[in-house]
Design goal:
By secondary structure, the chain is α/β, with parallel strands linked by helices. It has eight helices and six strands, in the order βαααααβαβαβαββ. The chain is globular and about 55 Å long.
C-alpha cells in the first residue's frame, strides 16, 4: 500500500513536555495528599486527562469525589501545565525534527498531529510549528483516548486519506496499539522502539525519511 500521509503523536515525538506534565500532576497530587512519583507518571503517557486523573486517584484515601470535583482537579492540573507550556519556544523543537518534517512535505506527503492532548494547538503555536501540519486531531475532537484508534482515524479523515495509507509515529505502546487497531502502520521511536507490534523502529527521528518511500 502506498504511503500518502504521516500522523504524529506530539508529546515525546515532536516535543518533549513530559517534565511539565509531571510537575503539574505532582503539584495537584501533593495538594490532595496523594503519593505521586515518576513511575506513576509513566502510566499516564498517551492517556487522556481524565483517565490520567483516575490513575492518580487510585492512591486517594479521602471521601469519594464527584464528577465536578474531579473535573475541577483536572482543570487545576491543566492550568499549571499551561503555565509551564507558556515558557516553550521554537528552541524546544530540534533542527533534525524540523528538517525531516520539511523533507517529508517536500516529497508530497500530508502531515497531521494525532494527540490526546487538548493543548496540541497551543504547543505548536509556541514552538512555531503550526503551519507544518495539514491537520490536527487532538483531545478536543475525540471521546476515546489511546489505545482506541479514534484520534488517528480522525486525523486520516481530516487529511482525506485511507487509514492503510497512513503511517503513525509514536513513542508509547498505547499509541502503537491505537495505530494498529485503526488499520495503520506504526513507526515507533523512544520507549516504544522495542515494541514488537511496531512496523518500523526508529533510532532517530530522521529515520522516517527511509520508510516513506
Amino acid at each position: 500500500m502506498e504511503t500518502k500521509a504521516f500522523i504524529f503523536d506530539l508529546d515525546g515525538v515532536i516535543v518533549f513536555t513530559d517534565k511539565f506534565h509531571y510537575q503539574a500532576w505532582k503539584k495537584m497530587a501533593d495538594g490532595m495528599g496523594i503519593y505521586f512519583d515518576e513511575t506513576i507518571n509513566n502510566r499516564l503517557r498517551g492517556v487522556s486527562r481524565m483517565d490520567s486523573l483516575e490513575i492518580i486517584l487510585e492512591r486517594y484515601e479521602g471521601e469519594p469525589l464527584s464528577r465536578s470535583e474531579k473535573e475541577a482537579l483536572a482543570e487545576e492540573k491543566n492550568a499549571s501545565y499551561r503555565e509551564l507550556l507558556a515558557t516553550m519556544t521554537p528552541a524546544d523543537v530540534t533542527d533534525e525534527v524540523r528538517a525531516a518534517l520539511k523533507e517529508l512535505r517536500d516529497r508530497g506527503y500530508k502531515l497531521a498531529i494525532g494527540s490526546s492532548s487538548k493543548n496540541a494547538r497551543f504547543i505548536l503555536e509556541k514552538v512555531e510549528l503550526l503551519d507544518a501540519f495539514d491537520a490536527i486531531s487532538d483531545g478536543n475532537n475525540i471521546t476515546n483516548s489511546k489505545p482506541d484508534p479514534e484520534v488517528f482515524l480522525k486525523a486520516a479523515e481530516y487529511l482525506g486519506e485511507k487509514p492503510e495509507e497512513c503511517i503513525v509515529v509514536e513513542d508509547a505502546y498505547a499509541g502503537v496499539d491505537a495505530a494498529k487497531a485503526g488499520g495503520m502502520r506504526a513507526a515507533a521511536i523512544g520507549d516504544a522502539a522495542s515494541y514488537e507490534k511496531a512496523d518500523y523502529k526508529l533510532d532517530v527521528f530522521e529515520d522516517l525519511l527511509k520508510i516513506g518511500l
